[in-house]
Amino acid sequence: MGDEKRGGAQAEKRGGARAEKSRTRREQILDAAFNTFARRGYRDTAMDEIAAAAETSKGGVYFHFATKEAIFRELMRSTADRLAAKVDRAVAAETDPIAKADAALRTVFATFAGHRTMARLLFLDALGAGRAFNDETNALHERFARMIAGYLDEAVAEGAIPPLDTRLTGVAWFGALNEVVARWLMAGEPARLEETYPPLRALLLRSAGVPEARIAATGPAR
Amino acid sequence: MGDEKRGGAQAEKRGGARAEKSRTRREQILDAAFNTFARRGYRDTAMDEIAAAAETSKGGVYFHFATKEAIFRELMRSTADRLAAKVDRAVAAETDPIAKADAALRTVFATFAGHRTMARLLFLDALGAGRAFNDETNALHERFARMIAGYLDEAVAEGAIPPLDTRLTGVAWFGALNEVVARWLMAGEPARLEETYPPLRALLLRSAGVPEARIAATGPAR
DNA sequence: CGAAACAAACCGACTGGTCGGTCGGATGCC
DNA sequence: GGCATCCGACCGACCAGTCGGTTTGTTTCG
């Protein structure tokens, strides 16, 4: 590890102008790649496109970066770094734990709202695939989020939980579930998926305002 | 819409044996595609692979399905249908809203735990891209989930929230956030992302056991 | 100071490989 | 004979990465 860039690296020994221009080009390419990846996704972005957007040639791009993946990696890392630093700064300014949580969430929201492109790059995993795939995936998420929202509506109607934004809650629940399952699939984090069921159940119910007493009563299940 | 399959469609008018064999082949292909997609992802699955896995040829596959995408679509839909039906059945068996929620969650968990392949197909959007992309994405999720867990640990240490599985909560929070942002990006659902901040904030804090009084106090922010 | 020598930076045609989809025919059930 | 079914060689498009060659800024030396 540590062999990121190529020739341009140690060129700054002398001749500042040259090195500076090189660094500028590098940034130019990174910038172009950022926008192109965010707009069209990783797979659908061709190196020629990046080159064109950076107003250089494919050869020029390959002079500064070894592979397409290397560009993506660097972009991911630096973008995530920037966001994490921003959040850390915001959190450090607060002392109360809940205020900290607030600050973190608010920072993330504000940053994404201001930099849509950043959000696309960091969060839209699915953009890695093509359009078709994406549409199907979207429909699926939509469907299950709505399904959950429907159940929540019933619960609200029956007075089991206080009124709340069921649409949003459906989306959030689905997202949480999705992430937990994905983690299990990719990292094998809990060896048995069912292990996370009780704590996740409690978490979700609590988030909808179900009284603690009610949550504890798991019943005879399992 | 409605031009899914090709010749095989209306073949069942007469001659049962022939039609049956055709239907069998269709299933065979679907089955092979299911496994291959789940294992290697959409993009990395070649039609030749599907054909080989189904013990037929590419031409054979193309006789039954118009495009690769059509196969994927049908697979997604039918799999989601099956899962949704299962959940619906489980929910219908309960009357109490919270028990319903329980049943739904438990059904999903049990189904995935039993059919890892199904989970892969339905939930691993990122699998649509290649390995490289995926690794990077994974690291990112891991990183932010841990970051959240870290903050939660502090909050627990200070007694601001009751002890809980901070690791899982971090993952769930990240998933919820991710999904909300993704929804905004893809569907443009809330025109302004910030609109969802207050309700999401309340949802997340509540899920961690922050007392209702504390949640209501939004402070002078915004 | 200017010209030759050098190397960093850049260019774009080309290669090798992949893969979705096509098509002309073969095969067997009715 | 005729139609559904199936086969697999082939086509065309796409694209990451390479490479020989050109340009351009810098250094060296007469």
* Largest interface, chains and sizes: A-B, 100 and 99 residues
Overall mean confidence score, pLDDT of chain A: 83
CATH class label of the largest domain in chain A: Mainly Alpha
How would the global form of chain A be characterised? elongated
* Gyration radius over CA of chain A: 23 Å
DSSP strand (E) fraction of chain A?
under 5%
| Distance between the ends of chain A | 48 Å
- CATH homologous superfamily of the largest domain in chain A? Tetracycline Repressor, domain 2
Describe this structure in words.
Two copies of one chain form a homodimer. Residues 1-13 of chain A have low confidence and may be disordered. The first copy, chain A, is mostly helical and 222 residues long. The first copy, chain A, folds into two domains: 9-123, Tetracycline Repressor, domain 2, CATH 1.10.357.10; 130-216, no CATH class. Chain A has helices spanning 16-40, 47-53, 58-64, 68-92, 97-114, 116-123, 131-157, 166-187, 197-207, 212-216. The first copy, chain A, contains ten helices and no strands. Chain A is elongated and about 70 Å long. Chains A and B meet through helix 4, helix 5, helix 6, helix 7 and helix 8 of A and helix 4, helix 5, helix 6, helix 7 and helix 8 of B. The structure holds a DNA duplex (30 and 30 nucleotides).
Provide key terms for this protein:
222 residues, 2 domains, Tetracycline Repressor, domain 2, mainly alpha, homodimer, DNA-binding
Map the helices and strands.
The structure is a homodimer of 222-residue chains.
Chain A: H1 16-40, H2 47-53, H3 58-64, H4 68-92, H5 97-114, H6 116-123, H7 131-157, H8 166-187, H9 197-207, H10 212-216
Helix pairs in contact in A: 1-2, 1-6, 2-3, 4-5, 5-6, 7-8
The structure holds a DNA duplex (30 and 30 nucleotides).
